[in-house]
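Re-running Tenascin-X to confirm reproducibility after the cluster update. Everything else is unchanged from the original entry.
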Amino acid sequence: MFRARARWWLLLVLVLVGGCRCGDDPNLGGASASFRPQAEVVDFGRVLEGTQVRRSLTLVATGRAGVTVEAVTDAPFFVVVSQIVVSGSGTGTVDILFSAGNAPVDGELVLTAGRTTAKVRLTGVGVRPLACVPQGECRESRFDLDSGQCIESPLEDGASCIPGSRCQENGRCQAGVCVGQPRTCDDDNPCTVDSCSPTQGCVTANVACPVPGNPCKVGVCDRNEGCKQVDVADFSPCGAVSCKAAQVCFSGTCRSVTPPDGFVCAPATPCQDEGKCSAGECMRPDAGDLESVFSAELGGAPVAEDGGPVLLVDDGTVYASVCGEDAGCWLAAYTESGLLRYESPYADGGVRTLLAASDAGVVVLAPEALEAYAPRGAGELRWRTSLAFADGGTPEGVPGTGAGRVALTQEGNVLTYVSRSAEPLRSRLIMLSAVDGVPLATGPEEDGGGAARLAVDDTRGAYLYTPWDGRLAFTSWALPEPVMDGGTLFGDALEDGGIASLILEQRGEGVPGGAPSLALASGRLLVGTRAAVDTDGGVLGALDWDAGTRTLSPLAEPVLMTPSGRVGHAFALACDRTDGSPCVDAELRTVLRSFSTDDGKSLSDVDVLPSPLLPGAFHEAALLSRNTVGVLADAALPNGQRQAWLEWIAYGNKLNQCALPGRVEVAGALFAGDLLHVALRRDGVWRLEAYPVGERAEVRGWPQRNASPAGTRRAVP
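Result of re-run:
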């Protein structure tokens, strides 16, 4: 009996022992080591591109035993710590980073502990922010991540801001307007003229000392003594030079000498070595053709307004307005070494003609409007301003402005004289902002219209010559801040506050019967190719076109003036007949006549066509150093082709001439620095080419047809 009972207890113990589970941890009887994630999806939402966002996921232990969980995921999601300890019956946290790109993305977080694996979906949206630019000075614009839009709001009074004008600094917002303190541009150098441009900031130029009347003296500025006169280098020409007699400087005095053999009677040019006297004759080596600095295809034909510039040059950039047969028209910009900067298509593909260029923009004439394009970057359109006259809201006639009727102030503001074509003819002088083209000032509406000429004197104002009534007028300006709520120049918009008045004051009795021509230098003007006039209106002398044995018909432009304003140069068609009968085209020659502006008397005449036997055409001229005039002209060859020449003329003598290579058709040219830029067609292809001149183009006075290579029609002292 006892033995049977013992076997029963033994069987019970074995069953109990065999059925016991003590868990994964041998030290914790009855505990289970597992986990579960608290969420199936971790959503990071919208996140800015290039930033990271952290989210946390809670892991819950499903038993009383602790457990270590391995966490793994792929980019652009990252686990901060890959091993997470979850305490028994407790929780643990896995931190995940999302590195946002610019698109929606999904990923997966894999969690493993022992034989347990769980997967969690990861999702996020990378958002590329918009470039938010405020529409006003004292406003801020920020990108709203939730809406994906820019949200603009005003800045509080006193907030720091950047004034719209570079002539102000330390800007603070006041009632929504950025108000700054005037910028000081004084460099404490009495030999510089310091000013401030709203678009460029501080601008410094050397003091232009008065040009002495003595050609053997030159004005220089000394920091301690100011402007003074010093002698030019000995043997510098001060008049005509030949091997029979030469006027040269010695110790500050102009003297006439008989040149000895070996005397340099003609300077070297890019195609020919200098000439030297021998037995009373100027002996020169044979001349060759000019060699171009560069030659670049334009891709189309250059276009220009009649009498307007074909090329402009400003700050090392050459501009041309070009039209292709099927490609429309565009503004082309090249470096002075011939590399293409940009080709900016015009919005409607239509024709535009060049007017002027500055750091503020390249101004072109569009149908019934002025436009300005950026001089750098891609040459984008900066502003477009309508020129339409309006009377009761109805446009009348086609507005006209253009070459010679547009000038730029030192700040780049656009001064333009606009006429309408409908009868009765009416005109008005307008100043537009360099920044956005809105009107800053306007003159009264006047009777009459047509070709007129503007010239700007930075220290005084602007001069306007209207040939139809012979008036020479002057205007000055003091501009307020622009206030404009529309884009129309004329009509009610001009009556709004903030538009200044341009008052035109007549200077003297005017110059009736003149051509559309105006040049300005050192307080003197050449008006209408008829008279020399001082800036107060007094006539110094009528230009003498009747002297000599030929009949001269003056050309309107170019008219050039030396920096001193004492000598002017103009061109005319010459006919050898004096009996009053007309010359045929083949008999007409082009003559350069130089004048004294003291009395208008003729100083010299030089035939500028390269060959005295062949008809030709005059294209461009400019003042160069050493009192030289550079001229580009061509001749019609017997076979119908044309040959072009660069010529140098000084003191009534043609010093030399160099041929451009090949047979070419010249559209236009421009002197800038020590280069001649030419738009021409060679072998049926329109090209932009540049040639060395050997001398630098003058920058003072009125050295070009539009005073500067940039076409600004502004006199430089």
